[in-house]
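Summary for the steering committee. The consortium agreed at its last meeting that each partner would contribute one worked example illustrating the joint modelling workflow. Our contribution is presented below. We chose a case with several input lines so that the handling of multiple components could be demonstrated. No manual editing was applied between input and output; the record is shown as generated.
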Amino acid sequence: MAAPANVLLVDDYEVNLELLEAYLELSDIPVTIYKAYNGAQAYAYIEQKNLDLILLDVMLPDVSGYDICRHLKGFRMYQNIPVIMITALNDKESMLKGLKAGADEFLTKPVDRHELILRVRNLLKMKTIANDLDYRYSQLHKELVIATELQKSFLPQAVPQYDKLDIEVLYKPSSFIGGDFYDFFEIDKTHLGIIICDVKGHGVASAMITATIKFQLYHLRNKYLYPAQLLEQLNHSLEQFFSHTANDFFVTACYGVLNLEDDTFCYSNAGHSYPCHCKQDSIALLENQQGLPLGIMADTIYDEQRAILQDGEELFLYTDGIFELALRQKPQKSCSSLSDFFEGETEPITLAHINALKQEIRQHTWKNQIADDINYIAITYHK
Amino acid sequence: MCQVQLEKFDDYILATLSGELILGCTREMKENVKEYVESHHNYHLVVDLSGVTFIDSSGLGILIAWFKMANQQQGKVAFCNLTAQVRKIIGFAKLDKIFTITDTLEEAVVSVK
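What follows is the complete predicted structure of the assembly.
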């Protein structure tokens, strides 16, 4: 049998309270009744008792029923408690005022017993549904928190320390769980592997795919020196994984190896935004000829390219979330690459532009809610 | 908001898409097309993208899903009438390397036969 519903009756006249109490007790609805004679007592019950319904008189000695209702509906934890306003004023204006304050139902004095019971029964049913939804939401929220923590644990806890490199990372998921992922592989004293990925979508599915990528990368550690081979094998595993799960998933990725002996960056790309080689007087996008995103075709071939780094130059790897900035600044602009982003600039694009862009990204992610995950890795090279 | 209109012809199915192909509307659209194709046992699909004003990674995801679905059943898919922006995004993800993309509906119909 269901637990009795906690019903609060608020009226400054004892006789009205007793009448309402008697009507409810005579019905077959199991209720526990609390009585308040003024606003202060009503607020105390609202805070102390887990209420399921409030029958609220409009005229009270210390505060109006409208104010109590408005106050109640302004709090996340109380807004699901249904409120029936009881008024002697059977006019449209007071009803509109009550509706504006968030009341769920109205009854006019003298209260009709049958009408009261029907309205109470209906609202208690709705409250049960709202309670159930609240419970499910809180369960889902707990699971999302766990998945978020799990996904965070897949990301590097610190950047690698190499004398020749200054590494800066920004990672900002748009929702609980982002679809962006990056990792570093400290292969030896002179080789550093860097991967940056964008898993399509967000949420728990993204976290699971990220976990799969992390796991596969661990097993591919004998390929860390060979970017194209690493992406080919990762692609093969993900294609198998998606064919058993969801066929509309895919992952864009760029993997490269920094060689500190010969000052090169050898990289391969799977449909990911081209990394940027930033020089003092220009920038170059590190393009690849091939490079379908991961998880679409099992036998995709990837190519390798090589860039030579000079002292003070920078490698800038990123996910396409950074282009949100362009859309924000120029809503009509289509932006899917750094070239689009800087389109229309009259001066040559240089490292200074990239530094300004990073600065803007940091400010934007600090101040605003973002629609897409934002992730970048900036590596300054010292010879 | 994105919409799909489906028509059955003798030897192919035409899916005419319109609106923004973005996260939030793609799942239902993906399933509608899949169910229609399966119920007609015809895996040759022509997708007219002339009315698609924007596409994000979720939108690319459903194009990939239809491509894979047809491939698994020895069917063919052709995408036609892409706006410059949609073509650019598809090209950027290198999907133009595996998708059949044509300028006109007539060419697309020929390519799936």
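The helical segments of chain B are 26-40, 57-72, 84-92, 105-112. Residues 57-72 of chain B form the longest helix (16 residues).
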